[in-house]
From TrEMBL:
This is NTF2 domain-containing protein. InterPro entries: NTF2, NTF2-like_dom_sf, NTF2_dom, Nuclear_transport_factor_2_euk. One of its GO terms (biological process) is nucleocytoplasmic transport. It comes from Collybiopsis confluens. Transmembrane segments: none annotated. Residues 24-160 form the NTF2 domain. It holds the Pfam family NTF2.
Length: 162
């Protein structure tokens, strides 16, 4: 079903569309942060991006898989804890692109023992907010009906909150 909004065609999203998009976002976020925190992240994390993907990491712009590699190659190990995520399907394509906002904490380096403070950020949990624009991956094998589509990261913006 299509409706017109301000003269432009827009698709109406059904409850099923939203449910499938939410499952896709949940699957994506679990896989993304597990990969980010893994020992093989330098080889695996860039696979989530395409050369045209844009990335802004705490105000620093980077481009595509090479930009992600550049960002993480000298970064200490990480441990992300996702607190929440929100997903909004963007009408206009089938499957729709997804706007996913994640909030949580991340520790860079080894966690500090309980009660111990450091003068640097290493080992301390930092609150972050990260927003992804996930784009359906037309090169991926088609999903089965009712299953989430395969996506890549078209845009990624992370900002430390505290």
């Amino acid at each position: 079903m299509t409706s017109s909004v301000n003269g432009a065609a827009a698709s109406n999203l059904t409850h099923d569309d939203i449910s499938i998009a939410t499952r896709a976002a949940d699957k994506f976020t679990q896989l993304y942060y597990t990969t980010y925190d893994s020992a093989s992240r330098l080889a695996d994390l860039p696979n989530f991006y395409r050369p045209s993907s844009s990335l802004t990491w705490n105000g620093n712009p980077l481009q595509g898989a090479d930009g992600v590699r550049q960002l993480i190659e000298n970064m200490p190990p990480t441990k992300h804890e996702m607190q929440s995520f929100d997903c909004h399907p963007i009408p206009g394509s089938s499957p729709p692109s997804l706007l996913v906002t994640v909030s949580g904490t991340v520790i860079h380096g080894k966690p500090l023992p309980s009660g111990q403070r450091s003068k640097t950020i290493d080992g301390q949990a930092r609150v972050f907010s990260q927003t992804f624009m996930l784009v359906p991956d037309s090169a991926a094998a088609p999903s089965l009906p009712g299953e989430p589509a395969k996506y890549y990261i078209g845009a990624d913006a992370l900002r430390f909150v505290g």
